[in-house]
Amino acid sequence: MTQGIDAYALIGDLQTAALVGRDGSVDWLCLPRFDSAACFAALLGDEDNGHWRIAPKGAGTCTGRRYAEDSLVLETRWETRTGTVEVVDFMPQRDRAPDLIRIVRGVSGSVEMSGVLRLRFDYGSIVPWMRRSQGHRVAVAGPDAVWLRSEPPVKTWGQQFSTCSSFTVAAGEEVAFVLTWHPSHERRPPLVDPFTALEQTLADWRDWTSRCTYEGPYRDAVVRSLITLKALTYAPTGGIVAAPTTSLPEELGGVRNWDYRACWLRDSSLTLGALLSAGYVEEAAAWRDWLLRAVAGDPADLQIMYGPAGERRLPETTLPWLRGYAESAPVRVGNAAVEQFQLDVYGEVMDSLSRAREAGIPAERHAWNLQLSLLGFLESHWREPDEGLWEVRGPRRHFVHSKVMAWVAADRAVRTLEAEPGLPGDVARWRALRDEIHAEVCEKGYDPVRNTFTQAYGSRELDAATLLIPQVGFLPPDDPRVVGTVDAVRAELTQDGFVRRYSAEGAAVDGLPGDEGTFLVCSFWLADALRLTGRTEEARALFERLLGLCSDVGLLAEEYDPGAGRQLGNFPQAFSHIGLVGTALALAAAEPEAAG
């Protein structure tokens, strides 16, 4: 039986990440980067597509698990008839090569353990050649080489193209396994001491979380979300991937399966806000710098997403040998949406750079000229239809959210020039552009009969993205059109109180068959909109329901199916955790006014 998506926990080294199930199996790991081919792909197929399980012999799911302290070190515990054992999984921040370390600890009694390592390179399609060298197991296929060793040494043997082990741990004993990847044409990298690496990894996370300045309500959930965002950061460049997975389905058995191992410009503004609000200025500056490098060039060539290092080519292909999570096919690698025209990203970029400037992050000298160039392109193209925030694969439309974000771009330019009049730029010109966009959206994107903004000009469909209208400053929260939009979204787009992106007839909009779950970030947006429109207690109640959807280790996917009570979509999802942090901090800020 397929484990639920939220049965997995995340470990990583700030360049890639692995998912570990409650049964002690690592079912997903891409090496050496987030977007590299997976060597464990059982998550999207079966055990023959690669996994690494260490667990008590004959045991099923664990008794319990948790992260050690505020870290990304996972502790999974089994209480058996003969004793209790713990498996500690982590990936130390690398100097050179990525290491996956698994330490088996005897807690009480004596427990017989079983291990199966099944390496399958290139997303589960290639069986490597295994050999012994210097007391280690070595797997090689094409460009990939992986070394496995244990301390103290444990007897291993080959069986059905897998490496098996069996050993016993008693109370107080520890056995460590280290899996190290490197390019097959290079020499094996220096060995790491697994026990020293554990202490250093815990110290690294302890140091990082100590920088968090937030001390308000829901702090544990906020810190766990911030740790998750840090884990999804590609350390060499500062880029943050949307998720470490591909093709986890938005509908079980459906085709809405996408690769999220890339960095979306759309996430940039809210990510910056979350990091800055919690005191992580260094991370915010690194993300800002990634953003500037990624968008540099002709504004007409601006993409909605890039690779972790700013790569532009993300061709979409399918992997037919993988059956998909819960038979949800096709499994996709790359993302064709990279070719789409999405007007809103110009607003996201302008807002992000404006936030960074206001937060005191030193401005790069070329950044303002780049912004002016983006704005000049937008001035000529904002009237065009686009694929919009939700990356529809149907016809282009005049999406209201896209036009609102075009207004944001002009507005942030005006604000910057008003604050720094010495900068080059025609403030009167950008004010006129801002006013023109605003007037058109209010005329063509608003339904006066139903008192709500709609998804697109002339459409009756609603869109959860219109909940952002007061948050970005397009209209004040007490404007009757804002209140009406919030009420309409609640009435027409919620399922069990959680928010869908748009109506169930969305296939007519997005050009795809099937359905999807409620979108978690949209539900956080509703909580934010309720707070802004004076309904703070309702906002808090919704937020606490959303917290209740977090997995046992505090993680959120992209979506939630209220009927089945399970998470859906790629996991864990940066946007969901950004929403959690933003709403928690906003509710904390609202507490004095609620008390008053």
Please provide a written account of the structure.
By secondary structure, this protein is α+β, with helices and mostly antiparallel strands. It is 32% helix and 22% strand. It has 14 helices and 28 strands. It has a 15-stranded antiparallel beta sheet that branches. It has a three-stranded antiparallel beta sheet with strand order 26-27-28. It is globular and about 75 Å long.
Short description:
The protein is of the alpha+beta class and 596 residues long.
Distance between the termini: 52 Å
Class of secondary structure makeup: alpha+beta
Strand content range: 15-25%
User: In percent, how helical is the residue content?
Assistant: 25-40%
What sort of overall outline do the alpha carbons produce when their principal axes are compared?
globular
Q: Largest sheet at a glance?
A: 15 strands, antiparallel
* Rg computed from alpha carbons, rounded to a whole number of angstroms: 25 Å
Number of strands: 28
- Which residues sit in consecutive blocks of at least 5 with pLDDT less than 50? none
Mean pLDDT: 94
Number of helical runs? Answer: 14
In terms of topology, how is this protein built?
Blueprint: E1 9-12, E2 17-20, E3 25-30, E4 38-40, E5 51-56, E6 64-67, E7 74-79, E8 83-90, E9 99-118, H1 121-124, E10 129-133, E11 136-141, E12 144-151, E13 156-159, E14 162-170, E15 174-183, H2 194-209, H3 219-231, E16 233-234, E17 239-240, E18 263-264, H4 268-277, H5 281-295, E19 305-306, E20 317-318, E21 332-333, H6 344-358, H7 367-381, H8 400-419, H9 427-444, E22 446-447, E23 452-453, H10 480-493, E24 494-495, E25 498-499, H11 507-510, E26 518-519, H12 520-532, H13 536-547, E27 559-561, E28 566-568, H14 574-595
Antiparallel strand pairs: 1-2, 2-3, 3-4, 3-5, 5-9, 6-7, 7-8, 8-9, 9-14, 9-15, 10-11, 11-12, 12-15, 13-14, 16-17, 18-19, 20-21, 22-23, 24-25, 26-27, 27-28
